[in-house]
Specification:
The protein is an alpha/beta fold. Helices cover about 35% and strands about 25% of the residues. It is built from seven helices and ten strands. The strands form two sheets. Strands 6-7-8-3-9-10 form a six-stranded mixed beta sheet, sandwiched between helices. Strands 2-1-4-5 form a four-stranded antiparallel beta sheet, with helices on one face. A hairpin with a 7-residue loop joins β1 and β2.
């Protein structure tokens, strides 16, 4: 069994109603530890729904999901939150930084949910910020940073949790091309160090930075292959 495995997953909104929407329509996928997978598709393809289910932010209508061999089906919200805090680091397009906290406090916040002591939270936050060359801004507030700097902080927040999986949802969408390339390089470096990276994107060029591409269309997987074999 892979690190992540979904079997015949459906996500249906307004089931049985005239306006029923099948965001995922019976998809199966296995992701092994240490992979770098891009899930690519246009708007409405189901890729964000896929990320929400893989990231334990939502649950499927039907089907099975196993994370590190453990069934996620019928877990309570508190159990899902615990799984997220231990297993998954998130990087969002909108950064999701808290304006009232400074940079290092934003990076340290998820570790408080993991039960990490304050002294260690600070040390790990600063280590992650330093690795991303943004430690000089540790005492700044998010609104004092550029978009690229805020994204580095968001990545540092994911890194500091030391989660085995990082899920990045359109992480370069709000960035210029140069800064976007830097962010993708950081994700590639994390993957080289053993982190499993799942990248959600609509951009074929960005997806090509991964090692494997899974294409979604109308809630179905239409392609799953190594980047070297990918026909765009």
């Amino acid at each position: 069994m892979g690190l992540i495995e979904i079997k015949d997953i459906y996500k249906i909104y307004s089931e049985g109603e005239p306006n029923e929407v099948r965001a995922l329509n019976g998809v199966s996928l296995k992701i092994e530890m240490g992979e770098f997978v891009a899930i690519v598709g246009t708007s409405g393809s189901g890729k964000s729904t896929m990320m929400n289910i893989l990231g334990c932010l939502d649950v499927p209508t039907y089907g099975e999901y196993y994370l590190d061999g453990i069934s996620i089906k019928e877990r309570t919200e508190s159990e899902l939150a615990e799984i997220r805090s231990r297993q998954i680091g998130f990087i969002f397009q909108g950064y999701n930084l808290i304006p009232s906290l400074n940079v290092w406090q934003n990076v340290a916040l998820p570790m408080s949910y993991q039960g990490v002591r304050e002294k260690e939270r600070y040390a790990r936050a600063m280590e992650a910020l330093e690795s991303l060359d943004i430690d000089s801004k540790a005492d700044n507030r998010p609104n004092q940073l550029s978009g690229g700097q805020q994204q580095r902080v968001a990545i540092a927040r994911a890194v500091a949790t030391r989660s085995p999986i990082i899920m990045a949802d359109e992480p370069t969408g709000a960035l210029d091309s140069k800064t976007g390339e830097q962010v993708l390089g950081i994700l590639q470096d994390l993957n080289a160090q053993g982190t499993t990276v799942i990248l959600i994107t609509h951009d074929n060029g960005i997806a090509a930075k991964a090692k494997r591409v899974v294409r979604l269309q109308d809630g179905l997987i239409t392609q799953d292959c190594e980047v070297s074999e990918w026909v765009r």
